[in-house]
Amino acid sequence: MSHIRPDFPEPYGLPVDGLRGKTSIFSHPVYLFLREFSLQDSRGGSLSKKAESLSSGKITIGTKEKVIIINELRQCHPLSQLLVIADLPRSTFYYHVKRLNAPDPYQLVKQVILRIYHQHKGRYGYRRIRLACRNESILLNGKTIRKLMKELGISSLIRRKKYRTYRGEQGRTCNNLLKRQFYADRPNQKWVTDVTEFKVDGRKLYLSPIMDLYNGEIVSYNLTERPLASMVKSMLLDAVEQLNKDDKPLLHSDQGWQYQMPRWQRWLSDNGITQSMSRRGNCLDNAAMESFFSTLK
How confident is the model at residue 71 (pLDDT cuts 50, 70, 90)? Predict the structure, then answer.
């Protein structure tokens, strides 16, 4: 090992394409290991011990990364010694060097994937990107699309969990008295209500309205930053103030926790309002309110 240079000069020349970017070769663990080896070898160190350290798993690195670094260091160090230290067969090294220098066969496909990804604001995962590529006559399987997205460093955004008022049995539920009869003969005969979530300027806002099925008018509403019981109470009291003496409306909602509260049911009873609830998991039972939210959003 005496022919190894005692000094370890910085490699000259331009790095290969795989190293262009933010990461410097001189901070890479294999480079640091090789540098340490060269310095210690000049002091009488043993190559076998260093190679054993590298192959023992103390430094975890893939074959491609080894090839990239060795290809750079070979400019000033014997290739045979570098391959021994990295525990890399010569044939494997030349195979990967050839692949590194070859043009990327998926370069145009990657451009299409990036365009589709940004066009849909990062909401598309590999399945929908695959379908979008197919519409542009690019036929690739999902595994390939997923691999290319990983190489590009992109992934679909995690969909935020939709706000749901239902939290299980929180109190007493009521029968569905409305039965999807979304019409009324007169004002204040049938009301519907629900709570929905909005995101405005990075803040979550919760809207709770009451709608009259006679003409689709919003009788009252409340908009707050937290879906508390006080939100629906304030909304209800505002609506009650608009009732005539003989008005006894039916108020329909889903099975949200707010509407299962004994307090809510007592407020309805005290004001002569009959409660009705959708069946669990049947959003169509309150389709009039859901349609209003959809149009509003």
Answer: confident
The Cα-based distances of 65 to 37, 43, 220 in angstroms read: 18, 28, 64
Torsion sign, CA atoms 19, 23, 27, 29? negative
Q: 281: burial class by Cβ within 10 Å (0-12, 13-18, 19+)?
A: exposed
Q: Which helix or strand (DSSP H or E) is residue 204 part of?
A: strand 203-212
Would residue 26 count as lying in a domain?
Answer: yes
Of 219, 220, 243, the closest CA to residue 231 belongs to 220
Given 101, 119, 142, the domain boundary residue is 101
Cβ neighbours of residue 63 closer than 8 Å, sequence gap 6 or more: 88, 92, 96
Quick one: DSSP state of residue 283?
A: G
The CA distance from 61 to 65, in Å, is 7
The DSSP string of 8-43 is -PPPPSPPPGGG-SS--GGGSHHHHHHHHHHHHHTT
Q: What is the pLDDT of residues 232-255, one digit of tens each?
A: 999 999 999 999 989 999 999 999
Model pLDDT for residues 202-233, shown as the tens digit of each residue: 788 999 999 999 999 999 999 999 888 999 99
- Looking at residue 55, its amino acid is S
One-letter amino acid of 57? G
The two tokens of residue 161 are 């969990």
Q: How many CB atoms lie within 10 A of CB 73?
A: 23
Closest CA to 147 of 130, 166, 123, 170: 130
Do 81 and 114 lie in one domain? The reply is no
65 & 112 share domain? no
Range of the domain at 287: 190-296
Cα–Cα distance, 169 to 233 (Å, whole number) = 20
